[in-house]
């Protein structure tokens, strides 16, 4: 199956999923959307009111800020893929529960495996925890690290920037690193040794990104 077909299959399953209690309060499930060839995948927390109404990720106030952040690095929504840790809105926008995240995790894993993004940007602490365990966002935000075979960068959630003015600029500065990390990922791919058996020189790919 092509990337697009896998993403469509996941979206179809999500639209009628009842694997956790969040299915009860939702108007629409929000599987995520974007470019099947995206180099960058953004993973948020879960749908809010507007997302639940429209069935699309990041279309409320946090989404407007995300659009601004994307534009600041010359990216459009149609260049990237955007999804969430849970695909259905938690009641009153409460935090997703561990069992809800676990129930929904397979959809996210299938999206990641299909997209094979060069860079994964986690937005907020729930998607951060998937890759960075219980690291503190204040300590690791904006730094690229290789996790589960992907180059990941943890960022504050855009909604945090709306509530706390001082974080807004931190998020803006962190976003500016994304093009550099994409360029670094491209360079690593270009210089990576070819498959075993070819005459390419054997060199261990760097675990620590040289840029950061
Ligand atoms: N916040 C999120 O984490 N995800 C959305 O899709 C919208 C707001
Ligand atoms: Fe299914 Fe995920 Fe929605 Fe729970 S949050 S009902 S697991 S799609």
From TrEMBL:
Provide the GO biological process annotations: DNA repair
Matches recorded under PANTHER family = TYPE-4 URACIL-DNA GLYCOSYLASE (PTHR33693:SF1), TYPE-5 URACIL-DNA GLYCOSYLASE (PTHR33693)
User: What are the protein's GO molecular function terms?
Assistant: 4 iron, 4 sulfur cluster binding; metal ion binding; uracil DNA N-glycosylase activity
Catalytic activities: Hydrolyzes single-stranded DNA or mismatched double-stranded DNA and polynucleotides, releasing free uracil
Specify the protein name: Type-4 uracil-DNA glycosylase
**Record's keyword annotation contains tRNA processing:** no
Q: What positions does the domain Uracil-DNA glycosylase-like occupy?
A: 31-176
Source taxon at top rank: Bacteria
Which family, according to the similarity comment? Belongs to the uracil-DNA glycosylase (UDG) superfamily. Type 4 (UDGa) family.
SMART domains named among the record's database cross-references:
UDG, UreE_C
Query: Which UniProt keyword terms apply here?
Result: 4Fe-4S, DNA damage, DNA repair, Hydrolase, Iron, Iron-sulfur, Metal-binding
What is the top EC class of this enzyme, as a single word? Answer: hydrolase
Annotated region (Disordered), positions in chain: 189-212
Q: What is its EC number?
A: 3.2.2.27
